[in-house]
Each structure stands twice: as structure tokens, then as C-alpha cells.
Amino acid sequence: MLPDTAKVWIYPSSRKFYNTEIDRLNDTIKAFLSEWKKEDTTFKVSYQLVYNRFIVFFADDVASPLTFQELDASVAFIIGLQNEYKVELLDKMNVCFKQGKYVQYKELKDFKKLLKDKALTGKSIVFDNLVTTKDEFENFWEVPISESWYGRFLK
């Protein structure tokens, strides 16, 4: 079990991963994480695949901080997944939000238009992929637009 202070990285996919891709994707992620800091027994890491759309890494690196080289390795891994699955995972200028039971992925300009056209309201749920800890992820990742930094677009 990782502490609430564990770091988190969220990679939203431009599309939902297909059911036929999930097992292989999980195996690939597990293999990467098992090798990420293999030599360091104090390093703890886990992941979640949420809504078959978000890849979320959690790492407790207090005893053994991640180096730039190790962080670069994780980004290279994510780029490899982008290429393999033909998805976008690193574009922070896109917005993910719930519309009914579905998770939508839109460019920021299209999201602003949905707000302007009242297709979304301040109560609509948005994913704040800028959270940085496990605690923030668990408590502030899925929030109403009015309670997120996206709320500034409601005016």
C-alpha cells in the first residue's frame, strides 16, 4: 500500500483502450514498472488503468527519489505506448470529462465551446490530470468543473 504522499502521473488516452488491448497493455505496464528501479528495494510503485482510458502511475520515492534518467525512461515508455496503440497520452492541452456515463476527450477549444453553448455546466465532472499525489488523485481528480482550474472558463 502506497502512502497518500506518493507521486502520481496521469496519462489520459485520446480514446478508450479496446477490450482486446487491455490484457497486453496491463502486461506491458507491469513489465516496465517491475524493471523501472529494480535494483532499489525501497522504491514502491503501482499503477491503475481507469475507465480503460487513463494510465496512472503511483510511486513512493521518498527513500529513493527518481532521477531525471528514470523519469525520462517513463516518458520514453509512454511514448512507446502512444506509438504502439496509436493514441495520444502526453497532450496536456486536451480535456477529459464525463458526459453521462461516458468519458469524453476534447481539445481545449472544443471544451470551451461546449461550456459556452451550455452543453456542460459547472456541475459537469472533469478530470484534473495535474494532481500530483495519491491523496489528490483520490480526492480531487474527478471534480465538478466549478471546483477545478477549468472553472475559469465558465464565465
Helices and strands, with pairings:
Blueprint: E1 7-12, H1 19-36, E2 44-50, E3 54-60, H2 68-85, E4 94-99, E5 102-107, H3 108-116, E6 125-127, H4 134-140, E7 142-144
Antiparallel strand pairs: 1-3, 2-3, 4-5, 6-7
Describe this structure in words.
The protein is of the alpha+beta class and 155 residues long. It is 34% helix and 25% strand. The chain has four helices and seven strands. The strands form three sheets. A three-stranded antiparallel sheet has the order 1-3-2, covered by helices on one side. A hairpin with a 3-residue loop joins strand 2 (44-50) and strand 3. Helix 1 runs antiparallel to helix 2 (68-85). The longest helix has 18 residues, at 19-36. The radius of gyration is 16 Å and the shape is globular. The termini are far apart. The model has no long low-confidence stretch (mean pLDDT 94).
What summary fits the major beta sheet? 3 strands, antiparallel
Q: What's the helical proportion of residues?
A: 25-40%
Distance between the first and last residues' Cα? 41 Å
Mean pLDDT: 94
Keywords:
single chain; 155 residues; alpha+beta; three-stranded antiparallel β-sheet; two-stranded antiparallel ribbon; 4 helices; 34% helix; 25% strand
Summarize the model shown:
This protein has 155 residues and is an alpha+beta fold. Helices cover 34% and strands 25% of the residues. It has a 3-stranded antiparallel beta sheet, with helices on one face. The protein has a two-stranded antiparallel ribbon with strand order 4-5.
